[in-house]
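Predict structure. Chain length: 841.
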Amino acid sequence: MTMKRCSRLISAALVAAEMLVFAAHVAYAANAEPDCGGGETAELKTPNPSPSISALSDGLAVSGHRYFISTSGNDRWSGRLAKPAADGSDGPFATLERARDAVRRLRENQPQTKDVVFYLRGGRYPLIEPVVFTAEDFGIQVMPFPGEQPELSGSVSETHWKQDTHGRFTSSALAADPGGEVFVGGMRQTLAVKPGATGGWRSTTSPLSVNRFSFRDAEIDPNDRTPGLKVELFDNTGAFNVRTRITNVDLISHVATVAPTDHGPVSNIGSFRLVGNPRWVDGKGDFGWDDRAHSVTLIPSDPAAFARDGIQIPVAHSLIILRGTYNITIAGLKLEETATAPADKLESAAIVLENASGNTISENSFENVGQAIRLTGSSGNFIEHNVISDTGSAGIELQDGSNKNSIFKNTLKRTGRVEKSSAAIYLHGASENRISYNLVTDVPRHGIGIDNWDRVTINLSNIVEFNKIWNTNQETYDTGAIEMLGRSDKNTKSIIRYNDIRNAGVPSSARNANQNSAASGIYLDDLTSGVLVCANRISGAPLAAIQIHGGAGIVVRDNLAVLDRPDSVFMFLQGAHRASARDRINFAWSPPPSAYEQNAVASQVGQIGLPAPPVSRNTVHRVELRFDNDAVINGEDRDLFLGKIQIGTRSLAPNDSTARYVTDDGRSFPGQESLPWNGALIWNLSDLNLDDARETPISVIAWGTSAAGVGAHFTLSIDGKRVGEATAHSMSDGMTGNMITRNIVYATAPGRLYFTVQQGGAPLISTNDYVDLTATRRMAAAPRADANPIDIAPELIALPDGDFYLSLSAEHKAAGISDLPICTARVVQCSERSAINGALQ
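Prediction complete.
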C-alpha cells in the first residue's frame, strides 16, 4: 500500500474520534438502541436489566406475602417461618409444590394478591417430577434465602459398591441402564471407549442401509459383545452424532446392526466408536454398563466424593415448568443433574416455558443438566445473567413461536456433551428475539444457531449482537460459530453485529480422518437471505471467516477478519438450489385394462425395470425413477436431484428406508437425494395404493444440473410400466443482491485466496482493505474482489484501543509487527439502511 490509500483512515484526531465511536458501540445503553440497526422491523427495545438477585436478597421482602422452603421443613407447617419453631409446632415448608398450593388457596379468597416471594433455604432438593406453575401462579418470585444456595436436583444416588483389585467399583443391581449420564461429586463421568484409535473413532468402510454399518476385521471382536453394548455414531458429514445399542454383529461379513434411536432410523453412518463395555474402564471418570447384571463399573473421578455420596444418576428431565404463566421470576437457584431427554419429549429442560410470557429467569446456575432452558410458544420473556455449563444438549432453546424474548448476558460453556449437534443458544421457529452480550465458549458445534428446515419453521427479525463466541465447532463439522439455516425462501430481516468470534473450529492439523469438513466464523447456510453482517471481529476460522451458501440480499460490511489458519479465506461463496425453482412434473398412473395387457406392456419396457406381476391390492409394487444421461461436458457435470415423488396421497422421499439407489455399473447405495450417475432409485412397496378403477395422479419434484445446455433426463415406471419421462432443469443458485464492502481482512497465515467462489453469483465487492502479513496470498480474480491489497511497512504498524484488539503470533511480533495496523480505526455506521433490494428493507 501507499500512505495515500491509508490516509483516508488515519490522522491523530480522527483515530481518537473513531476510538470513541468504538467505545460507544460496546456501551450498552439502557435507554437507546445500538447504532447498528440496519433497518430492522422488530419492535424490540434494549431491555432494562432485571434487578440483581443479590440486591433482592440482601434483606427479606417487607411487603407482600413470604413463604419459606427448607430441607428441614414440613409441608404440614404454615411456611411462614424461616426455620422450625423450637417446639416443632410450625416452620417452613419442605417442598416448592406446597408453597405454590398455599398461594393458590390464598388467592381463592384474595384473587388480586400479587406480591409473593418464595425463599428457598440452602441445601439439596431432589425432584423426581417437575414443579409446574400455571397462569393462576402469576407474580411469584422464587429465590434463595439471603446468603444461602439452594440446589434443585433431578438425580438419585447409588451408594452400594464392591471394589476389585484394579481399583474399579461395581454397583449392586440397578433398576435400569443409566444411559450415558452418571455424575460423581458434580462431575460428568464418561462412557469407556474401546481403545486403539484416536478417541476410539473408526471410519465405516462403505455405505449400507439404515441401522447398519460396516467395519474392518478386529474393529469389533467377540469379546466386545457384552449385553447392552453401546455405539456412538457420526453421520458421514461429521455434523451430528447419536448413541444407540448394537443389536447384532456379523463377524463374517463385518456388518453391525444397531437399534433405531429416538430420532428414528440411523442412516448415512460415517464413523463409529464402541462405548460402555466394563472391560474398557481403565481411567479416572470412566464407567461401563453390563445389561445382564444391571450393574455399573467405574473408576470415580473424585474418590472422596464417591466415598461420601456414591454416584448420581439423573431420572428427571425437567425441574420447573412455567405453563401459560406470566410475571414469574426464577432467580438465584442452582439446578443440576437432569437427564438428556428423547428428541420427541417437549418438556426436556431444567426450566421449561410453555406458552408463557413476561417471565424472568435470572442469575441461576445450571450444571450437568440435559438442557438448561427451553421456550416453546413463549414470548416477551427475559433470560438473563444465567451461568450454564456441561449440558447434555443445547443450553438455551427457543422454538415454535417464541418471539420478542431477551437472551442477555448469559454464560454458556461446554454444552452439547451428549448431543453434539446442539447449538449453545438455539432458535427454530422464533422471531424478533434479541441475543446480546452472552459469552459462549468451548462447545462442540454452533455457539448460536438459528435454523429453519422448511417453510413452516420460520425465523424473522432476530438480532445477534455483542456476543463473545470463543472455541466453537470443536467436535462437529460443516458448521459455524454463528449459523443460520434458511430453507423457507424468506427475507429473514436479521442482523448479526458487533460479535467477537475466536477459534471457530479445529485446525486442520488437529483433525483426524473422521473429521472431514472445516468450520466458518459466520455461516449463512442453505439459502439464508436478508441478513446484515456488520462490525463483527472474526479469527481462528479454519474454512472461512464468513460463509454464504445460496443466500440473497446479504450485506457484509465493516467486519474485521484475521485469516490466521492455513488456507482459510475471508468469504466462501457457494451456490445452492432454491426450493421455489424446483420442477414439478405431473404424471398419472393408468390402471391396465387387464392383467394380460399389463404383462405385455411390462415386457416391452423391460429395459426400464424388471417385468412385474399383474397389479393386485396385495402385491409388492416396484417404483423406479431412472436417470439416464449423466455426462461431464466442458467441466459441466450433469446430475439429477429428487425432492420427492407424490403418488396419490403417498409421498416417497429419496432417502426413505425402503429406497435403494442402484447404478448401471452395479453399485448399490441407500436412497439419496442426488443421483450423480446413471442408474435408478427403486422403492419396493407393499402399501402403495393404486386405484384400479381410475387414474392415480403422480407428481415428481426434481431438479438437475445442466451440461452443454441439456438438463437431467429421467423416466418413471411402476411395476415395469413406463409412467412418463421428463427433463429436470437447473435452478438458479439464488445468490443475487449480495454486497461485501468496507471490511478489513488480515492474512497472518499462508493461503492462496481471500475469496472462494463455487457457483456463487457475483456479489458487489468494493472498498475492502486486505493486509497481507505473509506475502503468500493473492486476490481472487476480478471482478469478484478489490484488486489492491494493502502493503503496510512494519514501522507504520500501531496498536489501537477498543474491542477490536487482536494479538498476532510471537513470530510476527519478533519480526517487528505489532498487533494491528492503525488503519483499523474507522467509524462504523451500521445503522444505514441497505441499498440492496430486498435486504433489511
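Summary: Residues 12-26 form the longest helix (15 residues).
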